[in-house]
Amino acid sequence: MTNIAENIQTIRGRMAAAARQAGREPAEIMLVGASKMNDAAACQAAIAAGIDALGENRVQEMTAKLAEHAYDGAPLHFIGHLQRNKVRQVVGTVSLIHSVGSLELLAEIDRQAEKRGIVQDILLEVNIGGEESKSGFDPEEVYAAAAEARNYAHVRVLGLMTIPPVEQTPHGNLPYFVKIHRLYVDISRNLYDNTFKYLSMGMSDDFEDAIAAGATIVRVGSAIFGRRSYQL
Ligand SMILES: *Cc1c(COP(=O)(O)O)cnc(C)c1O
Prior knowledge:
Layout: H1 4-21, E1 30-34, H2 40-48, E2 53-56, H3 59-67, E3 76-78, H4 87-90, E4 96-100, H5 103-116, E5 120-126, H6 142-149, E6 155-162, H7 174-191, E7 198-200, H8 207-212, E8 217-220, H9 222-225
Parallel strand pairs: 1-2, 1-8, 2-3, 3-4, 4-5, 5-6, 6-7
This protein binds pyridoxal-5'-phosphate (PLP).
């Protein structure tokens, strides 16, 4: 049995240490539990232990767990690859969509949000390693995309998100985190009147480096819930 509450407490301690070391306030960094492949009871255990939000990857899994009240008591985020035909099920259901990696997806989120009469909070996903297998804007195109996104009245861009390449050496992703933080500050300052709040980066193996580089949200799965039987 994984002790979810104990794991969360340990991670909070490590997050706080990393924040202080970087001269930052621990309270300014959110812990999102990446709860894919974990059941409603595990989600509820994380919420009872004070997780800031839960993040899901798959619409079908999320919908099933919503019916089981898995997320009652905490904000729900969508962090996985989102297909355009599933947008309708996500808009208005989650408080933040981390993974908006194309203008087509952005336009569809805007369309569905308009239908529902809401403004959907989102992050732009950046494919910081330029990997074929990953979605997201290339680092060179995200500035233009963020400028374009201002034209959509029913989405509110609150920051950036990234999933760097699988780390090959200890601290190997730190340069990617530093690079995306620079983009984040630049876009917020020049295009969004410094209103960006969320830089979502860092997972079980590298959240301390992400915090050192300026993350305001870390998304942690296996270090909270234990190893998944397979990856999504
Ligand atoms: C699974 C997942 C995480 C968490 O990964 P761990 O290595 O298990 O901490 C974070 N972000 C996204 C988008 C994920 O799919």
